[in-house]
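Q&A FORM
Asked by: J.P.
Topic: structure of ATP-binding cassette domain-containing protein

PROVIDED:
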Amino acid sequence: MDFISLENATVRREGKIILDNVSFKSKEGEHIAIIGPNGAGKSTLINVLYRSVYPLKKDDYRNVILGSERWITSELRKRVSLVSQTEADFINTGYKAIDIVCSALYSSLGFDFHHVVKKEDYSKAEHELERVGMLDKKSRPVNTLSSGELKRILLARANITKPSLLLLDEATSALDFPSRADFRELVRSYTKESTVIMVTHELSEILPEVKRVIAVKNGRIFLDGKKDEVLTQKNLSLLYERKVHLEEEDGIYSAFC
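REPLIED BY: S.T.
REPLY: Here is the structure written out as tokens.
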């Protein structure tokens, strides 16, 4: 079966269609960027894959993730991880950074009295914190960290389970451009281990390893193809309905109006 096979996904919220009969397939190891205007349905699409949003139940709707349609949520969370501003807001608690990272192994947010945590699991958490440059902050409550530090903690939490699929939904929002560049380089190191699907407003965040771009507009897939074929001034101008100027250097794109 396909690594991902989404067929005829329609999401309606408060009477408004957010996703309109969206379908696409992808293979394992195929890194994808999803772009499009505000309100196009990009984040909803990511959350359909993450199964935190469920489309309308229709006879022709299918959602195959990692080759399977049916998942126990706690098991899926160990195979598919999400980094987003919503997730960052959710974990912004008084729990220590190391507990936020380690508890992903238990499909929980932090630990309670009923958890019995293995010493080797804390060692895994320390390894992931060191990888994102946050080991020295392991005992800090996460609600005392900066936005950039919090995103790194979330990336460590996302990767401690060694997921097959890493979803990034505007993961660098609220970060300045040097921090975005640092975060991009961190994510690049994970592309050899996980398939990455990322939603972004900033073309500069699209990893060189990403070879496919899906453009979403008005809840539908507007364009889907090779990165260099989708990311053209003509296509972006049509997508955003205004003249867009595009630049590319060393595989990194940037756009402005």
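FOLLOW-UP: The first strand starts at residue 4 and ends at 13.
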